[in-house]
Amino acid sequence: MRLPVVFIMLTVMIDAMGIGLMVPVMPDLIQDVGGGSLSRAALWGGILTTTFAVFQFLFGPAMGGLSDRYGRRPVLLISLVVMAADYVVMAVAGSLWVLVVGRMVAGITAATQSTASAYMADISAPKDRAANFGLIGAGFGVGFILGPLLGGVLGEYGPRAPFWMAAALAAANAAFGAIVLKETVTDATRRPFDWRRANPLGALRSLGALPGVRTLLLVYFLYHVAFSVYPAVWSYFGQARFDWSPSMIGLSLALFGVAMALIQGGGMRPILRVLGERGTVTAGLVCSISSYVLIGLITSGTIVLILTPVAALGGIIPPALQGMMSRRVPDNSQGELQGALTSASALAMMFAPMAMTYTFARFTDENAPIWAPGAPFLLAAALSILALFVVLSIPRQAD
Asked: How far apart are CA 48 and CA 54, in angstroms?
C-alpha cells in the first residue's frame, strides 16, 4: 500500500481514536470537572458533542474548498498540528467551559475528514471510489478498536490521561504526513475559493441541485442522526443498563470497531460486487434497524456484545452513498462534495446528541415515567426506517 494512502488511513484512524479514547472516560471526566449525577453528565456530554458538530458543520465545506484551492497537503498537516495542541488544552481543563471551547477547536480540525476523502477520490478511478472510501471507513474502524481500548486502560489512571495520548498521536501523524504526503491538486483541477460554496448550507444546496444527489444527501443525513446514538449515549447506557466499568465500555466499543474494520476494509468490494451500491445501502439499513431495536430492548450485556457484528454491518452504508454521489459530481468538485458530506454528518450531530442524551436522561432519572435506558436506540431505529423508505423511493434508473 502506498505511504500517502497509509497516512490518509492513519488520519481518519486518529480522528476515531481521539473520539474513542475519550468515550470511556467522559462520564467520569464531566463528573470530575462539573460534579452532578450520571444523568446530568449525559446532558453535558450532549452539549459537548453538539458543540463539536456545530463547528464541524460550519467549517466542513470551507476545509474542502480550501483543499480544492491550496491543496490537500497543507490543510491536512496544519489541522493535525492544531488538533494536537487542542488535546493538550483539554487534558488540563479545569472547567466545563474550557472543555466546550476545546470541542469547538476539535470540530474545526475534524473537518479534515472531508479533505482526506477528497484525497482518496483524487487518486481513485470513479469505479473504485466506493471501495476505496471503504478503506477510509476501515481506518475509522481500526481507530474505534484502539481508541476505546486505550481509553479504557488509560482511564484507570484518571479521566485526563487519554487526552495526552490523543495529542501525541496527532503530532506523530503530522510529522509522518510531512514526510510522505504528496500533493494531488494540480493546476488542471485547482479552482478558486468561493465563500458562497464554503457556506455549509450553500454547499449542500448547490450539490443538492445535481441529479439524484439531494435524495442521497437526505439518506446520508438520516443515517448519521441514527448512528450518533453510539457516541452520544453508549458509555452512559453501558453504566446504567449493565453497570459496565470504563474498561468494559472500552472493550465493547473496540469489539464494534473490529467488526466495522473487517466489514469496511475486507467486505466492501465483494458486497458491492454482489449487491451494487443501492443494494448495499438497503442491506445496511436493514441490519441497522434490527440492531437498534435489539439493543434497545435486550437486558443482557453478553447478548448485546454477540450482536455487535450485526450492528457493525450498518457501516457499509456511508461508503456506498459516498460512491454514488462521487460519481455524480465533477472531478474538480470532489473536495466540495466531501466537505458538504462532512457538514451533513455534522448537521446531524448538532441535533442528534442532544436528542439522544435527553431521551436517555428522560428515561433514566428518578422521575422517569418508565425506566428505559435503551430508549435512544429505539429512536435510532425509527429514523433508520425512515431512511430505508427514502432509499426504496429512489427510481431504479436513477441508481
From this structure: 10
CATH of the domain at 339: 1.20.1250.20
The neighbour count for residue 25, using CB atoms within 10 Å, is 26
pLDDT at 82 over 80: yes
Q: Look up the domain containing 136 and give its range.
A: 3-182+194-394
The CA–CA distances, whole Å, from 13 to 85, 111, 144 equal: 18, 14, 8
CA 336 centroid distance within chain: 18
Cell of 14: 486518529
Greatest alpha-carbon pair distance for the chain in Å reads 62
Residue 90 counted as domain residue = yes
| Helix orientation angle between 72-91 and 38-70, rounded to the nearest 10 degrees | 160
Whether residue 88 is contained in a domain is answered as yes
CB atoms within 10 A of CB 123: 15
Q: How far is CA 33 from CA 18, 41, 92, 99, 351, in A?
A: 19, 10, 11, 9, 24
What is the C-alpha to C-alpha distance for residues 222 and 239, in angstroms, rounded to an integer? 27
Rounded Cα–Cα distance for residues 112 and 77 (Å) = 9
Determine the Cα–Cα distance for residues 34 and 21; give it in Å rounded to an integer: 20
C-alpha dihedral (144, 146, 152, 157), degrees to nearest 10? -140
Continuous H helices in the chain? 3-22, 26-34, 38-70, 72-91, 96-110, 112-122, 129-155, 161-180, 195-198, 200-208, 213-227, 229-242, 246-262, 268-297, 301-306, 308-312, 317-326, 334-362, 375-392
Please name the amino acid found at residue 377: F
pLDDT tens-place string over residues 5-16: 788 888 888 877
pTM: 0.65
Label residue 93 left, alpha or beta by phi (over 0 means left) and psi (-120 to 50 means alpha): beta
Hey, is 383 helix, strand or coil?
Answer: helix
Integer angstrom CA distances of residue 279 from 30, 55, 136, 252, 378: 42, 33, 20, 29, 24
- Per-residue pLDDT for 399 more than 60? no
